[in-house]
Amino acid sequence: MIYTETVMKRSLAVLLAVFSAAAPAAMAESPTLIELFASQNCRACPKAHVTLKEVDEARDDVLILTWSVDYWDYLGGKDPMAMGESKERQRAYVDRFKLRGPYTPQTVYNGVEQCPGNKPGKVDAAISKARKEAPEGVRLVRKGDGVELTGKAKGLTDIWYVDYLDGEDNTTDMVHPVTQVTALGPWLGGRTVITLPACHSHCAVIIQEAGFGPVLATMPLDPAPGH
Asked: How remote is the C-alpha of 133 from its chain's centroid?
Protein backbone atom coordinates (compact mmCIF):
# COMPACT_ATOMS: atom_id res chain seq x y z
CA MET A 1 0.00 0.00 0.00
CA ILE A 2 2.77 2.43 0.94
CA TYR A 3 4.64 1.50 -2.23
CA THR A 4 1.53 2.09 -4.35
CA GLU A 5 0.88 5.50 -2.76
CA THR A 6 4.51 6.51 -3.32
CA VAL A 7 4.36 5.52 -6.97
CA MET A 8 1.09 7.39 -7.44
CA LYS A 9 2.52 10.54 -5.82
CA ARG A 10 5.62 10.39 -8.02
CA SER A 11 3.50 9.86 -11.14
CA LEU A 12 1.29 12.79 -10.20
CA ALA A 13 4.34 14.99 -9.63
CA VAL A 14 5.71 14.09 -13.06
CA LEU A 15 2.38 14.83 -14.72
CA LEU A 16 2.13 18.19 -12.98
CA ALA A 17 5.67 19.09 -14.01
CA VAL A 18 4.96 18.18 -17.63
CA PHE A 19 1.71 20.14 -17.61
CA SER A 20 3.38 23.16 -16.04
CA ALA A 21 6.11 23.14 -18.65
CA ALA A 22 3.61 22.86 -21.50
CA ALA A 23 1.04 25.32 -20.16
CA PRO A 24 2.80 28.59 -21.04
CA ALA A 25 3.19 27.56 -24.68
CA ALA A 26 -0.39 26.32 -24.92
CA MET A 27 -1.83 29.37 -23.19
CA ALA A 28 0.46 32.01 -24.68
CA GLU A 29 -1.53 35.15 -25.44
CA SER A 30 -1.46 36.91 -28.75
CA PRO A 31 0.42 40.21 -28.48
CA THR A 32 -1.61 43.40 -28.60
CA LEU A 33 -1.27 44.94 -32.06
CA ILE A 34 -0.37 48.64 -31.93
CA GLU A 35 -0.54 50.41 -35.29
CA LEU A 36 0.98 53.87 -35.69
CA PHE A 37 0.04 56.03 -38.68
CA ALA A 38 2.80 58.54 -39.29
CA SER A 39 4.61 60.68 -41.85
CA GLN A 40 8.11 62.12 -42.13
CA ASN A 41 6.41 65.51 -42.65
CA CYS A 42 4.45 65.29 -39.39
CA ARG A 43 5.93 67.51 -36.66
CA ALA A 44 4.38 65.50 -33.80
CA CYS A 45 5.48 62.11 -35.16
CA PRO A 46 9.07 62.08 -33.77
CA LYS A 47 7.63 62.18 -30.24
CA ALA A 48 5.34 59.28 -31.15
CA HIS A 49 8.29 57.25 -32.46
CA VAL A 50 10.14 57.84 -29.18
CA THR A 51 7.06 56.95 -27.12
CA LEU A 52 6.43 53.69 -28.97
CA LYS A 53 10.11 52.78 -28.95
CA GLU A 54 9.99 53.00 -25.16
CA VAL A 55 6.86 50.83 -25.12
CA ASP A 56 8.53 48.29 -27.41
CA GLU A 57 11.60 48.10 -25.16
CA ALA A 58 9.59 47.86 -21.94
CA ARG A 59 6.97 45.28 -22.94
CA ASP A 60 6.95 41.85 -24.57
CA ASP A 61 3.17 41.63 -24.93
CA VAL A 62 2.78 44.05 -27.85
CA LEU A 63 3.59 44.14 -31.56
CA ILE A 64 4.08 47.66 -32.90
CA LEU A 65 3.79 48.37 -36.63
CA THR A 66 4.31 51.80 -38.21
CA TRP A 67 2.29 52.60 -41.32
CA SER A 68 3.59 55.60 -43.28
CA VAL A 69 1.03 57.77 -45.09
CA ASP A 70 1.52 60.25 -47.92
CA TYR A 71 -1.16 62.91 -47.37
CA TRP A 72 1.37 65.28 -45.75
CA ASP A 73 3.84 65.01 -48.63
CA TYR A 74 2.97 68.52 -49.82
CA LEU A 75 4.49 69.90 -46.60
CA GLY A 76 8.03 68.66 -47.12
CA GLY A 77 8.49 66.19 -49.93
CA LYS A 78 7.59 62.59 -50.73
CA ASP A 79 7.75 60.13 -47.85
CA PRO A 80 9.74 57.15 -49.22
CA MET A 81 8.08 54.71 -46.79
CA ALA A 82 4.49 55.72 -47.58
CA MET A 83 2.16 53.12 -49.07
CA GLY A 84 -1.33 53.38 -50.50
CA GLU A 85 -2.35 50.49 -48.24
CA SER A 86 -1.46 52.57 -45.17
CA LYS A 87 -3.87 55.34 -46.17
CA GLU A 88 -6.60 52.83 -47.03
CA ARG A 89 -6.21 51.11 -43.67
CA GLN A 90 -6.31 54.38 -41.73
CA ARG A 91 -9.38 55.61 -43.61
CA ALA A 92 -11.20 52.44 -42.53
CA TYR A 93 -10.30 53.19 -38.91
CA VAL A 94 -11.51 56.79 -39.31
CA ASP A 95 -14.92 55.41 -40.28
CA ARG A 96 -14.85 52.76 -37.56
CA PHE A 97 -14.08 55.24 -34.78
CA LYS A 98 -16.30 57.94 -36.31
CA LEU A 99 -13.48 60.48 -36.50
CA ARG A 100 -13.68 63.72 -38.48
CA GLY A 101 -10.71 62.66 -40.58
CA PRO A 102 -7.31 60.96 -40.55
CA TYR A 103 -4.52 62.42 -38.45
CA THR A 104 -0.94 61.71 -37.48
CA PRO A 105 0.40 60.39 -35.21
CA GLN A 106 -2.63 58.14 -34.70
CA THR A 107 -2.29 54.82 -32.91
CA VAL A 108 -4.83 51.99 -33.06
CA TYR A 109 -4.89 49.11 -30.57
CA ASN A 110 -6.18 45.69 -31.68
CA GLY A 111 -8.66 47.57 -33.85
CA VAL A 112 -10.78 48.50 -30.81
CA GLU A 113 -9.16 51.65 -29.39
CA GLN A 114 -7.31 54.67 -30.78
CA CYS A 115 -5.46 57.73 -29.49
CA PRO A 116 -2.60 60.12 -30.40
CA GLY A 117 0.67 58.20 -30.32
CA ASN A 118 2.70 61.09 -28.92
CA LYS A 119 0.92 61.09 -25.54
CA PRO A 120 2.43 58.37 -23.28
CA GLY A 121 -0.40 58.46 -20.74
CA LYS A 122 -3.05 57.88 -23.37
CA VAL A 123 -0.95 55.18 -25.02
CA ASP A 124 -0.64 53.25 -21.74
CA ALA A 125 -4.37 53.56 -21.07
CA ALA A 126 -5.22 52.38 -24.58
CA ILE A 127 -2.97 49.32 -24.25
CA SER A 128 -4.63 48.37 -20.94
CA LYS A 129 -8.11 48.76 -22.40
CA ALA A 130 -7.27 46.76 -25.52
CA ARG A 131 -5.81 43.92 -23.48
CA LYS A 132 -8.91 43.77 -21.27
CA GLU A 133 -11.09 43.52 -24.36
CA ALA A 134 -8.84 41.01 -26.15
CA PRO A 135 -10.92 38.18 -27.66
CA GLU A 136 -10.25 34.59 -26.68
CA GLY A 137 -10.45 31.33 -28.54
CA VAL A 138 -8.60 32.19 -31.77
CA ARG A 139 -5.13 30.64 -31.93
CA LEU A 140 -2.17 30.78 -34.29
CA VAL A 141 0.44 28.01 -34.04
CA ARG A 142 3.50 27.64 -36.24
CA LYS A 143 3.37 24.43 -38.28
CA GLY A 144 6.52 23.89 -40.33
CA ASP A 145 6.57 26.48 -43.12
CA GLY A 146 3.01 27.56 -42.39
CA VAL A 147 0.73 28.63 -39.55
CA GLU A 148 -2.28 26.74 -38.18
CA LEU A 149 -5.31 28.91 -37.42
CA THR A 150 -8.09 27.58 -35.21
CA GLY A 151 -11.10 29.05 -33.44
CA LYS A 152 -14.47 30.63 -34.05
CA ALA A 153 -15.25 33.73 -36.08
CA LYS A 154 -18.37 35.88 -35.72
CA GLY A 155 -18.38 36.49 -39.46
CA LEU A 156 -16.09 37.13 -42.37
CA THR A 157 -12.51 37.57 -41.15
CA ASP A 158 -9.39 38.64 -43.04
CA ILE A 159 -5.94 37.08 -42.83
CA TRP A 160 -3.18 39.67 -43.33
CA TYR A 161 0.52 39.03 -43.87
CA VAL A 162 2.72 42.02 -43.07
CA ASP A 163 6.40 42.59 -43.87
CA TYR A 164 8.23 45.09 -41.66
CA LEU A 165 11.76 46.20 -40.88
CA ASP A 166 13.54 45.47 -37.62
CA GLY A 167 17.07 45.19 -36.28
CA GLU A 168 19.83 46.05 -38.74
CA ASP A 169 17.29 46.22 -41.56
CA ASN A 170 15.55 49.15 -39.92
CA THR A 171 17.61 52.29 -40.58
CA THR A 172 14.71 54.63 -39.73
CA ASP A 173 13.66 56.14 -36.40
CA MET A 174 10.36 54.25 -36.61
CA VAL A 175 9.38 51.10 -34.77
CA HIS A 176 8.84 48.28 -37.28
CA PRO A 177 7.98 50.30 -40.39
CA VAL A 178 5.73 48.29 -42.71
CA THR A 179 7.09 47.66 -46.19
CA GLN A 180 4.45 45.34 -47.63
CA VAL A 181 1.05 43.90 -46.75
CA THR A 182 -0.65 40.93 -48.40
CA ALA A 183 -4.20 39.64 -48.02
CA LEU A 184 -3.99 35.86 -47.66
CA GLY A 185 -7.73 35.30 -47.93
CA PRO A 186 -10.89 35.19 -45.82
CA TRP A 187 -11.58 32.96 -42.82
CA LEU A 188 -14.95 31.90 -41.45
CA GLY A 189 -13.74 29.94 -38.44
CA GLY A 190 -12.60 26.38 -37.87
CA ARG A 191 -9.17 24.94 -38.56
CA THR A 192 -7.01 25.95 -41.49
CA VAL A 193 -3.31 25.88 -42.28
CA ILE A 194 -2.05 29.14 -43.78
CA THR A 195 0.64 28.94 -46.45
CA LEU A 196 3.05 31.81 -45.89
CA PRO A 197 4.68 33.87 -48.66
CA ALA A 198 8.40 34.60 -48.51
CA CYS A 199 9.38 36.94 -45.68
CA HIS A 200 11.76 39.66 -46.84
CA SER A 201 12.83 40.88 -43.39
CA HIS A 202 10.46 40.39 -40.46
CA CYS A 203 6.83 39.37 -40.79
CA ALA A 204 3.59 38.90 -38.88
CA VAL A 205 0.22 37.25 -39.43
CA ILE A 206 -2.83 39.28 -38.37
CA ILE A 207 -6.33 37.81 -38.04
CA GLN A 208 -8.82 40.67 -38.17
CA GLU A 209 -12.57 40.93 -38.58
CA ALA A 210 -13.46 42.13 -42.08
CA GLY A 211 -13.69 45.88 -42.58
CA PHE A 212 -10.64 46.44 -40.33
CA GLY A 213 -12.57 45.46 -37.23
CA PRO A 214 -11.23 43.93 -34.00
CA VAL A 215 -7.97 41.99 -34.23
CA LEU A 216 -8.57 38.42 -33.10
CA ALA A 217 -4.97 37.18 -33.11
CA THR A 218 -1.48 38.28 -34.08
CA MET A 219 1.70 36.27 -34.53
CA PRO A 220 5.16 37.75 -35.20
CA LEU A 221 7.21 35.29 -37.23
CA ASP A 222 10.86 34.41 -37.16
CA PRO A 223 12.98 36.66 -39.39
CA ALA A 224 13.96 35.53 -42.85
CA PRO A 225 17.19 33.47 -43.08
CA GLY A 226 20.25 35.66 -42.88
CA HIS A 227 18.56 38.30 -40.72
From this structure: 15
Residue 37: predicted pLDDT = 98
> Could you tell me the pTM of the whole model?
0.86
- CA dihedral (176, 177, 179, 183) in degrees, to 10, reads 70
Domain-ending residue, one of 85, 102, 132: 132
Residues 83 and 122 in one domain: yes
Q: Domain of 124: which CATH number?
A: 3.40.30.10
183-209 per-residue burial string, b: 16 or more CB within 10 A, e: under 16? ebeebeeeeeebebeebebbbbbbbbb
Residue type, 44: A
Tens-digit pLDDT profile for residues 155-178 = 999 999 999 999 999 999 999 999
Reply yes or no on whether the pLDDT at 70 is more than 80: yes
Would you say residue 19 lies in a domain? no
